[in-house]
Amino acid sequence: MVGRADLQEFEDHLPDKDVARGFYAKYEPKEVLGRGVSSVVRLCVEKETGREYAAKIIDISDDESGGGHQNSFTLYQASQREIDILRLVDGHHYIIKLYDVFESSTYIFLVFELCKNGELFDYLTNVVTLSEKRTKVIMKQLFEAVDYLHQKRVVHRDLKPENILLDDNYNIKVTDFGFARMIAPYERLFDLCGTPGYLAPELLRASMYENAPGYGQEVDLWACGVIMYTLLVGFPPFWHRKQMIMLRNIMEGKYEFCSPEWDDVTEEAKDLIRKLLVINPMERLNANQALKHPFFLSIKTQAAKFNARKTFKLAIVCVRVLIRIKRYKYTTELISLETIRTAPYKIKILRKMVDGCAFRIYHHWVKHGDVQNRAALFENRPKMDLLRNSSQDEKLLHNLQCY
Ligand code: ADP
Ligand code: MG
């Protein structure tokens, strides 16, 4: 008979336990960053280096095939595919980097680079809408990522603001390759997956009609169109509280650039959206074509317009203006000869001089400040000894007048 302690010891020595232990030995799990249907994403710290990562912990304990991983397409297999694709697309600046993988029969741990600024979805919720300039930066990065994925023959199938993360510099990282698939050049897919508001018409048709031709990588470009629309105005193009109506709107390509939200958006932005939200996938722009659309060319034009000489000249003018303003307080005012002649008392420096002369001549009228000497008040002749001093001031005045 096997005792409970023996059983525990036996379990502790299973290779799976070692795998989980391996993760916990290397990383210290912290708070939850996000949750999916069967996964939890936690912040974790690498014990040896103190570096932070995001660990996606997938619970595969309910998987039908368990550790066997055969038969039907299980969560384990789905996770394996996600890992394979993540490794295949590794190395692109705008795609999430997978650092480490730990697998057991109950859990899979995927250790990703950490995106401290979270989901684009939350960012958009906070700011409500994005400026065209900001949308341009994000969409350009997104098309570059999609172009790279498609070159690698991968279709993401779940592009949406929740699956686009923002790193420390607010650059995007496309994540969640749970629905991603490898696809051969002319291969067509038929399975229904993704998120309702972002589903392309041909994907819906493939799951509704038996003779539908299926879908390919173009579904990612449709999702990009929905994302771009949403970023600019803060609400999605096909949304309806009744999901059936929303899906019908998608299939009919029924959306509008409503007023007043779209009034100030440029024609280039609208044109790019129009060329992405095209019902026929063959007529839809691909990622490479989208990057060449005039909406993005204006970024380059602005860069080309940069003139180092002009900018430097402008900087010099700015500095000179600032110095002038700073010195203004201490700069002497230019006084015209006419003003000195006609109204010398208007000029502060002359006024002081005139007052000084008058005081020196008549100050004996004022006894110790404010008490007046009555007898002196009747003296109408200036004191003779002071007249000598005042003659110097008069000389000064005379010189000034000649100036
Ligand atoms: P699921 O397949 O379950 O949707 P995701 O890979 O999309 O799993 O991750 C779920 C959520 O966890 C994301 O929407 C995001 O909020 C958060 N998350 C995932 N990866 C990271 C990461 N590298 N950095 C920060 N947060 C992340
Ligand atoms: Mg997700």
Features:
Transferase(Phosphotransferase), domain 1, 403 residues, disordered N terminus, 47% helix, 13% strand, two-stranded antiparallel ribbon, Phosphorylase Kinase, domain 1, binds adenosine-5'-diphosphate, binds magnesium ion, alpha+beta, five-stranded antiparallel sheet, single chain, 3 domains
Write the layout of secondary structure elements.
Elements: H1 4-12, H2 15-26, E1 27-35, E2 39-46, E3 52-59, H3 75-88, E4 98-103, E5 107-113, H4 120-127, H5 132-151, E6 154-155, E7 164-166, E8 172-174, E9 181-182, H6 201-208, H7 218-233, H8 243-252, H9 267-276, H10 287-291, H11 294-305, H12 308-327, H13 337-342, H14 348-362, E10 366-367, E11 371-372, H15 374-377, H16 384-402
Antiparallel strand pairs: 1-2, 2-3, 3-5, 4-5, 6-9, 7-8, 10-11
Magnesium ion (MG) is lined by residues 36, 162-163, 176.
